[in-house]
Design goal:
Length: about 375
């Protein structure tokens, strides 16, 4: 019985499964796309064939791929920028990313490409790490290379993964004032300009990709949204800022051990059970002419953590139920344009990312179980 329930969860979480019957037709008529993310399996040439087979068996038909600037840049670990044309794709080592994109093309799977830090050390202000104040101009050159290299292979772009989290962008705060929104605004503007320089006149680019909850080290997603769009607490825009050409807003609406209906005490946080907060904030931002009206919400990462995760782990049967409920919540919100399934295999128990992100680290153990049957 447990195996059946786990398999059912995986089926509900991934669109296109023939066995899903009516659920598949409902999702298709609604127009919501489900992206699947499996970086460990897809980027490893030894595991890629098996991973592709698993994804096909699960009915996957769209991928999210995170392209880490540091992974492909020349001399990424060095403090001195090498002499090269940053806009020329030939100067980057695309490696396994090329092969993953080629597989997606072969299978006719659309790709959401999130281009993100960590970046090369030489592109940061400190030259000592990979995430402190990345140079927007260097990022613009990189995005030009990305656009020229992948072009039509990408259906949808997103700029930066969880820029409100210190794992990806620093500093988040300076003397108690949120700094990362301003840093991110520059990265988004220059990254968008880079895609246009690559010949994409009107690229479809998501902003945000925000983590769901704030702490003393993480900027809350709605505070981050306002800061990026130059809005004050009442959603009034500074006259010195123009609007951002965002196609949609990416968000990671992970929940906690409270379940899919949990709503954080802080009204600046957005979990799956509090999506209305994000919808309302985007409407207020559009009213202030900071973004265009009625942009879609793209839930680009989501999942429920299973035991033995010490923070928010639940039993596999509960995980299956909560994952299905969460997807239904997203489906019922007409502003949500995409859902996601992340990952294909568990995060390592006790790993640094699990400790740092706690409730934000998620799994898809049921997909592994289903694929191994």
């Amino acid at each position: 019985m447990l195996r059946i329930r786990i398999l059912l969860c995986a089926m509900l979480a991934c669109v296109g499964l023939g066995a899903a019957g009516d659920a598949e037709q409902a999702l298709a008529s609604h127009g919501q796309v489900t992206y699947f993310e499996a970086p460990q399996g897809l980027l490893n040439p030894q595991t890629r064939p098996q991973t592709i087979t698993q994804l096909q068996a699960l009915g996957v038909h769209a991928l999210r791929v995170e392209l880490y600037w540091r992974d492909v840049a020349p001399n990424a670990g060095g403090a001195v920028r090498p002499s090269f044309d940053g806009t020329n794709p030939a100067n980057y080592s695309w490696g396994q990313y090329d092969l993953v994109m080629a597989e997606a093309q072969r299978l006719h799977w659309p790709v959401l490409l999130t281009v993100t830090g960590p970046g090369p050390k030489w592109a940061t202000a400190s030259k000592k790490d990979f995430v402190t104040r990345p140079d927007p101009m260097q990022f613009e050159q990189f995005m030009t290379a990305v656009g020229r290299h992948f072009g039509s292979e990408v259906a949808l772009y997103a700029i930066w993964n969880e820029p409100n989290h210190p794992d990806y962008l620093m500093p988040q705060f300076v003397h108690g004032v949120a700094t990362s929104p301003r840093l991110y605004r520059a990265l988004f503007q220059d990254g968008y300009a880079g895609l246009q320089a690559a010949g994409l006149a009107h690229p479809k680019v998501l902003m945000g990709e925000t983590a769901p909850t704030g702490t003393s080290h993480v900027v809350s997603p709605l505070a981050f949204l306002r800061g990026t769009l130059c809005l004050n607490a009442k959603y009034k825009k500074a006259s010195s800022c123009g609007s951002l050409p965002a196609y949609g807003y990416g968000h990671h609406a992970y929940t906690t051990a409270g379940g899919p209906f949990y709503q954080p005490h802080s009204t600046q946080d957005v979990t799956i059970g509090a999506l209305a907060r994000l919808t309302h904030a985007l409407d207020l931002a559009a009213h202030a002419h900071a973004i265009k009206a009625h942009i879609g919400i793209y839930l680009t990462e989501f999942g429920i953590q299973s035991k033995p995760n010490p923070y928010v782990g639940v039993a596999p049967a509960v995980q299956a139920e909560w994952d299905a409920i969460s997807e239904r919540i997203a489906y019922n919100n007409p502003r949500v344009q995409s859902f996601s399934q992340y990952l294909l295999s568990d995060d390592p128990v006790g790993g640094s990312r699990v400790r740092k992100r706690q409730a934000q680290a998620i799994v898809c153990r049921m997909a592994v179980a289903a694929g191994s049957e």
